[in-house]
Amino acid sequence: MDLLNTLVDKGLRRALPSREEALAVLATTDDELLDVVAAAGKVRRQWFGRRVKLNYLVNLKSGLCPEDCSYCSQRLGSKAEILKYTWLKPEEASKAAAAGVAGGAKRVCLVASGRGPTDKDVDRVARTIDAIKSENEDVEVCACLGLLSDGQAERLRGAGADAYNHNLNTSEATYGDITTTHTYADRVDTVQKAHAAGLSACSGLIAGMGESDADLVDVVFGLRELDPDSVPVNFLIPFEGTPLAKEWNLTPQRCLRILAMVRFVCPDVEVRIAGGREVHLRSMQPLALHIANSIFLGDYLTSEGQAGRADLDMIADAGFEVEGTDQVTLPEHRGGGCGSVCGSADEAPADGTRSDERSDAVRTDTVRTADAPGEARTDLVAVRRRGAGTDLAPNA
Ligand code: SF4
Predict the structure, then answer these.
(1) How far apart are CA 144 and CA 344, in angstroms?
(2) Structural domain includes residue 377
(3) pLDDT exceeds 80 at position 335
(4) How far does residue 244's CA lie from ligand 1's centre (Å)?
(5) For 81-133, how does the pLDDT look when each residue is reduced to its tens digit (9 = 90+)?
(6) pLDDT category, 338, cuts 50, 70, 90?
(7) Cβ distance 39 to 315 under 8 Å?
(8) How far is Cα 10 from Cα 310, in angstroms, rounded to an integer?
(9) Helices 213-226/19-26 angle, 10° precision
(10) How many domains does the chain divide into?
């Protein structure tokens, strides 16, 4: 296809595709899908080889948020039966982080629900970063604490944070339909504050919230303009008890097209498959590794992910390798990645969501597709009941 040849050529040169080209990727047919994956794979291999970076989420504070993000199980008024707890102690967070690092994670993402941190919260996270780095000095730490006030990004950087995550989530035009308690501009401002403080900016999106192809292209072009080092791509996990509980409108094919579009628009950036990987890509997850160069290991913030061991086996079986702490993530022209320029996190999204021998959740015989929209799918979403905030061992 001329389209794919053009996109590969541009991706290898870090040239920006046109909006029409990005839209055309989303409009490709199932017959063309493997060609789309192969084309995105060429760009991925140019900048990231066959490496897969593993990231590990630690939910420092879960639920009870005053904001109303419709996709989030921790939102104001959420009826989702998630774990709810206030700030973990630094040593508790450090213990949870250590499990992820032992499982192969190179980056730990410290996430807290809420509109944004108080200065006291920033101090608490600074102590947590110190506790984590004193145990594992090579680990990259990304904070994801919501909207930042002046000076907070600098304080986090000074405390040893490598990165800051704040997702744009959806297009500016539809932002008000998803959240009313803050704006798209507020989110842009926080990403810019993180950047300006020398933190590696991590900012991504959530697909599957009823947005149009044009909205998806808009948010990805908006992200490219902000120039984050990492872009988490979340696929909505429609949590029971949230306003988007019935938005089951993604297929594995659609997810692959979205990832490919992100790769073509942001060719040399860490593209991370975030929440919803197991639920929406299901048995097509290994194909997505040909496009994205990063995933979360273990559980998500409020839902369970595939067993950590299954992730490692999948990476090896698909012919990829886990990126080590001695390997730089980003290409040289971007500074090589965390530690040198940086740092990431999926507010992973404060809704980021994953499931294990979650055999129930990924069973292909129960899979639904976009042809049966509108039903709740409690069989595909397992609420997290282990790890941080519980007495049970984490999944890593
Ligand atoms: S995404 Fe973050 S700010 Fe929005 S409701 Fe969830 S925890 Fe609160």
Answers:
(1) 8
(2) no
(3) no
(4) 14
(5) 888 999 999 999 999 999 999 999 999 999 999 999 999 999 999 999 999 99
(6) very low
(7) no
(8) 34
(9) 130
(10) 1
**65 catalytic, yes or no?**
yes
255 is catalytic: no
Closest residue by Cα to atom 7, ligand 1, is: 113
Q: At 176, which CATH number?
A: 3.20.20.70
Q: For residue 369, what pLDDT is reported?
A: 41
Amino acid letter, 233: V
Residue 22 one-letter amino acid: A
| 187 vs 165: CA distance, rounded Å | 10
d(CA 305, CA 362): 10
- Least confidently predicted of 31-35, 75-79, 251-255, 268-272: 75-79
Which protein residue's CA is at the shortest distance from atom 2 of ligand 1?
A: 350
pLDDT at 278: 95
In a domain, 393, yes or no: no
Beta bridge partners of 203: none
Dist. CA 195 → ligand 1 center (Å): 21
Residue from 96, 16, 145 nearest 386 by CA:
96
CA 124–ligand 1 middle distance (angstroms)? 19
Which tokens go with 31? 């017959």
Ligand 1 atom nearest residue 179's Cα: 4
> Domain for residue 312, yes or no?
yes
Torsion-angle region of residue 345: left (phi > 0), alpha (psi -120 to 50) or beta? left
Banded pLDDT at 334 (limits 50, 70, 90): confident
CB 186 within 8 A of CB 147: yes
Would residue 65 count as lying in a domain? Answer: yes
Token pair in block for residue 110: 């410290």
Q: Are strands 321-322 and 107-112 parallel, antiparallel or unpaired?
A: unpaired
